[in-house]
Amino acid sequence: MTITLDRKSPESATPPGFRRCLDMSVADLETCLDGISYPASKHDLVCQARRNEAKPDVLAFLHLLPENKYPQFHDIAFMAWSFLLV
């Protein structure tokens, strides 16, 4: 038995007011975190992004991160790439 998953669902399957993806890039994330000192906690990341007037989608991504200390931007960028490529 073969199961095929179609990743492209029709737009009609998306509830009104709900978006299926975040409109952001790793460059957006880097710009919004400019000036932060590492290691940084999730709370630190969100606060710095707010200070830098991050787009709502960047803030939404940061809120999805696990509660950890992030030693460097690379760790956050890797998670963003993984999330954006899914």
Can you lay out the helices and strands and say which pair or pack?
Blueprint: H1 26-32, E1 40-41, H2 42-51, H3 56-64, E2 69-70, H4 73-85
Antiparallel strand pairs: 1-2
Protein name: DUF2795 domain-containing protein
Pfam family, one: DUF2795
Structure description:
By secondary structure, the protein is mainly α. The chain has one domain. It has helices at residues 26-32, 42-51, 56-64, 73-85, and strands at 40-41, 69-70. The protein has a two-stranded antiparallel ribbon with strand order 1-2. Helix 2 packs antiparallel against helix 3 (56-64). The longest helix has 13 residues, at 73-85. It is globular. Residues 1-12 have low confidence and may be disordered. It comes from Dehalogenimonas alkenigignens.
Task: Describe the structure using short key phrases.
single chain, about 90 residues, mainly alpha, two-stranded antiparallel ribbon, 2 strands, about 45% helix, globular, disordered N terminus, DUF2795 domain-containing protein, DUF2795
